[in-house]
Prior knowledge:
This protein has 573 residues and is α/β, with parallel strands linked by helices. It is built from 15 helices and twelve strands. The chain has helices spanning 43-53, 113-125, 140-144, 168-178, 183-206, 210-215, 218-241, 248-285, 291-304, 313-365, 369-423, 425-440, 470-491, 510-527, 537-540; strands at residues 2-7, 15-16, 20-26, 73-80, 83-90, 96-100, 110-112, 450-454, 457-461, 497-500, 530-536, 554-559. The strands form three sheets. A six-stranded antiparallel sheet has the order 2-1-4-5-6-7, with helices on one face. It is rod-shaped.
Amino acid sequence: MIHRIYSSLATFKALEFKSGLNVLIAQKEAGATDKQTRNRAGKTSLIEIVHFLTGSDAGEDSLFRSDALDNALFGMAFDLGGEKLRVERSGHQKSKIHLEGDSFAKGKTSISNSEWVELLGEKLFELHEVPEYDGRVPTFRSLFAYFVRRQLSGPFTTPEKQANMQQPGDYQVALLFLLGLDWRIASDWQKVRDREKTLAELKKAAGAGAFGSIVGKASVLRTQLTVAEARLTDIKSQVASFRVLPQYAELEAEADQLTRAINDLSNANVIDAATIGDLERALQAEAPPSLADLQSIYAEAGVALPSVAIKRYEDVRSFHESVIRNRRDYLAGELDTAKQRVAVREQERVRLDARRAVVMGVLQSHGALDQFSQLQGEAVRMEAAVESLRQRFEAAAQLEGTKNELEIERNRLTLRLRRDFAEQRTRLSEAILAFEETSKRLYESAGSMTVEETSNGPVFKFPMQGSRSKGIKNMQIFCFDMMLMRLCAKHGMGPGFLIHDSHLFDGVDGRQLISALKVGAETAAELGFQYIVTMNEDDAFKETAAGFDLRDHVLPTVLTDAKEDGGLFGFRF
């Protein structure tokens, strides 16, 4: 229960609260113009003060960091853990919380904001008993916002969300915790959503750009990996059987020299073979002319060249036969010499070839040290390449297979949720009946709350006739919040107060509005909690309800924006 809200600002209108229903009225003065709306009276600022004093963030855009309020101290006296204490905080020292009147802060009068939030979570929701869990867990701020919905967060769109931007993982964890169900299922669901989001981003990145060339497709990488592994196995086998020969370079040079020598011998033999062929053809062609031809030539020479042909025919014939014989002897000698050179070279070639065979055998069965080093280096390079391919293949396979895994995980979580609903049927029934009980007190055709086990976690629905109406949607939120208060009262948790901003009643029919306030007052009195409402005066008193006088619950402090000092802070800024 909140007893008092105050400030060090001299102009601030301190607010005193009592148990049950408290209505803070914003009044329209008779002289107010259309431009002087009551939206600046400070009704919503009251909500912000409560959040500020319960550990909300106070960034640079916070109301309490403005020049007008930065040095002002705000305070609240309220019950916490069965004790009454005062908490104070300023925008100037937003991280420091001043406490007075508590015994559970171990005598400290000043603690950090994070310590204060942790303490509030322990005392109001017993969050200190929440086991450590790898994932999203219920937090004080996410739970508390259901009991003091902030207009700035857009809390009046649907009952299960206390902020318009609240994500499924956050409100599912919070609500399953408040309903006494297994919130860890919702936490695990958020893990699935996070993985799906990451998967979608990876797939998007893998589909284009440099990342796509890094990861690739699993089918292609599987083939590349298979080929690379086979190549690596072959290289490793070569390394294992490799024998290093220290004289490898010398033998390699000898083999080259032998090859060149053999080639030279072969080339020389080819030349001599041609020579032998020419000589043999010359020997066969060397035939002396017949005596008749010689006589005929000399007869003609005696006529044509009588002065030259002076020797006797017999001398000429003898000389001719001598010339023929000498030439044949010369050709036969050259032929024998050539054949001998070929024979000698062939013998040498056979010897050199035999030596080269020995050397090549040694070279083939051994290797040089530098070759061995190169082979080892290649093996290392291939191992790195294979490992890279393996990692890329595993990443691609995981990327392509994660979708199926996540679908399986979603089905498994759905079964867990269904089983938990069955096991906690009593707790779930309490919530359903509490919602319906409040709803039927407002409408002839009562609305209801359903919690459906879906593949995306628990889905809260609130079927109600005319639920598209803004006013009826807001009344669904009213019923939902009253349901939470009823559950908290039964199970001894929660802040012990519920605060509704006047925006909750925007568009609500006057009869339903006064009925809601009556239901709120009666429920608060029945369960012993405090219900604080901020309202515009003309909205509050449009209708009446039998047995209920709203004026009995209106706070003595009345706000107005018709005057400069009529608002909560006592001045405009």
